[in-house]
Every structure is written in C-alpha cells, then in structure tokens.
Amino acid sequence: MKPQTVQSRIQELAVLRDGWLDGQGLRPSPDGLTWLSDFWSKYWPSDLAQPYVYPMLNGDVQLEWKGVDDAAIIAEVNLQTHVASVWVANTKTGENLEDAVFSLNSPAQWLRFGSLVRDYTVSPSRTLFRIYLAGPDLFYTDAADRYARLKAICAQYGLEGVAPTDGQPTSVEPTPEGARLLYRHDIATLRSCRAVLANITPFNGLEPDSGTAYEMGYAAALGMPIAAYCTDGLTVLERTWRAGRLVDANGRDDEGLLVENFGLPANLMLCAEHAHFTTPEKAVAHLANALRAR
Asked: How confident is the model over 155-168, as pLDDT tens digits?
C-alpha cells in the first residue's frame, strides 16, 4: 500500500475524537496538526518519500518509512512541543541503527531530519547528492550550455547538479502571480538539494545577482553547505577601481559610499563564512568533500 501525502492523512486524523480506539486514545491537537501540515509543506524535501502516518494513543503522531536494506524509520512527533524522536532499526535483526531528536520549529532541523530519512530510504548506489546551481546563468543566451557544463563538473565528483530551470513551469505569465509561481518552484528545488553552488560573479553591474544572494541566505538558514565562485578573480575594491570609480583615503568612492575592503570577492555576508573560489571546479570539489565528511 502506497502511503498518502502527509497533508491528506492529517485531514483524516483531524476528525478523530477522544476514545477513537475502543474507548482509548486522545484526540490529536487540531493546532498541532495544522502546524505539522504547514511545516511539512514548507520544509519537507519534495524528492523524498511520504511516510505512513498513524495517530498515537497519547494524542501525538507517528511517521513510518520503509527503508532500503531492511531499514525502518519511525518518528514520534509531539504535537505540543513540536519535537520529533526518531529511531532507525533493521527489521530483520532488530538492531538499532540510529536515533535522533529534532526540534521541528527550526528549518535547519527539518533539513537534518530529511537528511536522516534520505540516508536510509534512498539507495546510495543509484542516488547522488543533489547540488542546487544558484546564479544568474539562466539570464544568459547560452543558459543551457552553462548549466550543462556545471552539471558535468558536478558529475565528475559524484554529485548531481540541479538547475532552477529544471522542471520549471512553462508559459508563466509576466505578472506578480507568475513571479510567485517561479519563486515557489525555485525554493522547492533548492530545498530538495543537499548543498548550494553559487555563482557570485558580478551580474548587471559590480555586485552578484540579488536572487543568488537571497538563495544563499535561505540555504544558510537551513544549515546547508554553500560554496561560491567568482570568475573575475577580483576583490570588491579592485573591481571598483577597474570600473573607473575613484576611492579616497577613507575608502569612499566618488559618490561618497564606503567600499568594502576585506580582500573578498563580494559582500562579507556572502563570503566571510562561506567558502569561495575563482572557478566552479574548485567550488564543487569543496562541496564534495564537505558532504562526504558529514
């Protein structure tokens, strides 16, 4: 039997009343069920399997997955505290393989929860780490070639490059609603990945693409590894000089604006804590090592 989506199963649980099992069993908290449904739709990776969902006698919810190599994953979700207690066991030997506790009010904890489930439900022999390809590449006339090259680099390291244009809705109207549709698609695609490769080479000016900066921040909030690359090899200050802008002794340009001078290729919020390189090859190599060290 194929599991239902969590949202449809939650709708069924919402009609339960106290004593739902032969006079026993507390009714699941309506507010707790609403929270679980909302957060599941926001933070559960779209490429992962849906679990079987069962009510518990104490009013909480149990999630179950059948994994590979006889593994089973069980998560008991407390609808009051929003904490998930997770156990992984071998169904044939009874061996406990792993246990963990996740506070599911945190997007980063949802990412780690999904990573644990992924480790036991997806066969390593047929699945690669997915890398989100952030950057302004889709705006160029050779976008397809750019993404093909980035995906080929990822493949060299046993990774799967995923472009924001992959599976993107077609015939999107140039309206605010069309923009929201693309936004939701891009965020869902990013969340389905394990790390972000970000092209922060200046775009349409002296700064990185603003959408790329947003996606880096979103990924950082989820605790995802990020590696950036800037192909011009310049610091912010050097790039300002190259553009013909004057910078005085106080570090201000000819418009009176302070120019960052930390020896970084972009704003410190993008580079101070995230690894950055001059080529995508070096950035991908870093991500491959980072992911396999986790």
From this structure: 888 899 999 998 88
